[in-house]
């Protein structure tokens, strides 16, 4: 049995936890919250620290210091993960679901995320290139706005 099928997120080692990230980059997309409804909307605008070829943070260890809005998921209650994209391994496992076939831990290759069209590298743009986030709200067919 695979570790993600036999352990809770809280029971995982740091190495196991980090390997759950599929490097899609969706969590690094800027989000906007509707103050009246609490709905969260993803934009196609990403933090300037992300490498759009690999969809990985170029300053991962320092990210929360360099970008105060950046969240360290391990510092939050798993029940708060509802804002994460529906494809995110942390959210899937928290919700009692399995990892998709394209996830690198299942497929055995990191390229499967790009091949499945899940990675943001093909459409995301850096914060420094954008003036108005509201002009870049995106909607995924499988991703309703979240509360």
From TrEMBL:
InterPro entries: Puta_zinc/iron-chelating_dom (IPR005358), UCP006173 (IPR008228)
Signal peptide from the UniProt entry: none
Cross-referenced HAMAP family: UPF0260
The family this protein is said to belong to: Belongs to the UPF0260 family.
NCBIfam families according to UniProt: PRK05170.1-5, PRK05170.2-5
Protein name: UPF0260 protein Q9L42_012145
Originating organism: Methylomarinum roseum
Lineage: Bacteria, Pseudomonadati, Pseudomonadota, Gammaproteobacteria, Methylococcales
């Amino acid at each position: 049995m695979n570790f993600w099928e036999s352990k809770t997120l809280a029971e995982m080692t740091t190495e196991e936890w980090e390997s759950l990230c599929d490097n899609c980059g969706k969590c690094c997309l800027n989000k906007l919250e509707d103050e009246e409804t609490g709905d969260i909307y993803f934009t196609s605008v990403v933090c300037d620290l992300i490498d759009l070829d690999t969809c990985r943070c170029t300053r991962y260890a320092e990210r929360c210091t360099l970008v105060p809005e950046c969240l360290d998921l391990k510092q939050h209650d798993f029940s708060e993960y509802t804002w994460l994209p529906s494809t995110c391994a942390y959210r899937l496992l928290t919700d009692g679901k399995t990892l998709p076939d394209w996830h690198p831990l299942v497929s055995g290759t990191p390229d499967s995320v790009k091949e499945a069209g899940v990675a943001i590298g093909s459409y995301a743009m850096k914060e420094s290139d954008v003036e108005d986030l509201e002009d870049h709200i995106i909607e995924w067919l499988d991703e309703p706005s979240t509360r």
